[in-house]
């Protein structure tokens, strides 16, 4: 006898990357946080916050934030749904659209593991389609799986590849369910699939302030889709899912695009340098469009290396998962942090 539904009993739950307390002397390159601080304008809003904002319930639609997004991305405010991190929106979408074997969740693998966890909890069948070696989108197989929800992360984690717009367009056209394009890493990429939301009524684009805007602790994400597609999602989300502080701080951050772009440019530059330096150490690393690299160490000794780095106070991500056993996902840090990582790898190699 259990207190829980069978689906809950059968699910392990999502296992997040390790999160040591701020101030712990650890180089944290495991969860793709941005190494630069948030926009000074966002911090200023936080410092000057009137406590009246805390006494009252927040705006259920986070309108101040929607206005800032609307200006930044040139989309109408009623095309935006705001969420407590984009993780919450993934959950809301699955609750609204997926169920059992008739309304499955479909996604190519490897990708963000949370899609699987959320589907299992719903429960909804999860149809996992393997990416080929070259990460070309397997459009025919994705369409044939008939998802009520199809998730595509682009840029994808952990591979770092970006899906060409024409492939996403073809997929959107051929799917009968909704297509969720998870753009958590778009700030480090060369293009976005945003134009597709105007072309297709079944496409929703997910964004977050966690990566590009250095605000993972604030929990602020949002979706962009035509208002008709958002109606069902608004019914499912908690009324007050966005707290008042996040609404105001997030609005200031997203309005400061210049600062975000400056940090993203630095990271993109460091990403290329780190890729080259890892190759010099005989790693193979895929070309990345995110703020991380998926790297294969020379002897494929990824788990061992993960543990040795950890012993030296450097956290990277190791996924004990089919196809990823010999790989590490490494977040791109500041130039100095990347040098520390490389020095540690060199020292371990010489041991
Ligand atoms: C980090 C990440 C998210 C979650 O972002 P939050 O807004 O912090 O919840 C969603 N999707 C992918 C692919 C991610 O890597």
TrEMBL record:
<dbReference type="GO" id="GO:0004400">
    <property type="term" value="F:histidinol-phosphate transaminase activity"/>
</dbReference>
<dbReference type="InterPro" id="IPR004839">
    <property type="entry name" value="Aminotransferase_I/II_large"/>
</dbReference>
<feature type="modified residue" description="N6-(pyridoxal phosphate)lysine">
    <location>
        <position position="211"/>
    </location>
</feature>
<dbReference type="InterPro" id="IPR015422">
    <property type="entry name" value="PyrdxlP-dep_Trfase_small"/>
</dbReference>
<dbReference type="GO" id="GO:0030170">
    <property type="term" value="F:pyridoxal phosphate binding"/>
</dbReference>
<keyword id="KW-0808">Transferase</keyword>
<keyword id="KW-0028">Amino-acid biosynthesis</keyword>
<feature type="domain" description="Aminotransferase class I/classII large">
    <location>
        <begin position="25"/>
        <end position="345"/>
    </location>
</feature>
<dbReference type="GO" id="GO:0000105">
    <property type="term" value="P:L-histidine biosynthetic process"/>
</dbReference>
<dbReference type="Pfam" id="PF00155">
    <property type="entry name" value="Aminotran_1_2"/>
</dbReference>
<keyword id="KW-0368">Histidine biosynthesis</keyword>
<keyword id="KW-0663">Pyridoxal phosphate</keyword>
<keyword id="KW-0032">Aminotransferase</keyword>
<comment type="pathway">
    <text>Amino-acid biosynthesis; L-histidine biosynthesis; L-histidine from 5-phospho-alpha-D-ribose 1-diphosphate: step 7/9.</text>
</comment>
<dbReference type="InterPro" id="IPR001917">
    <property type="entry name" value="Aminotrans_II_pyridoxalP_BS"/>
</dbReference>
<dbReference type="InterPro" id="IPR015421">
    <property type="entry name" value="PyrdxlP-dep_Trfase_major"/>
</dbReference>
<protein>
    <recommendedName>
        <fullName>Histidinol-phosphate aminotransferase</fullName>
        <ecNumber>2.6.1.9</ecNumber>
    </recommendedName>
</protein>
<comment type="similarity">
    <text>Belongs to the class-II pyridoxal-phosphate-dependent aminotransferase family. Histidinol-phosphate aminotransferase subfamily.</text>
</comment>
<dbReference type="InterPro" id="IPR005861">
    <property type="entry name" value="HisP_aminotrans"/>
</dbReference>
<comment type="subunit">
    <text>Homodimer.</text>
</comment>
<dbReference type="InterPro" id="IPR015424">
    <property type="entry name" value="PyrdxlP-dep_Trfase"/>
</dbReference>
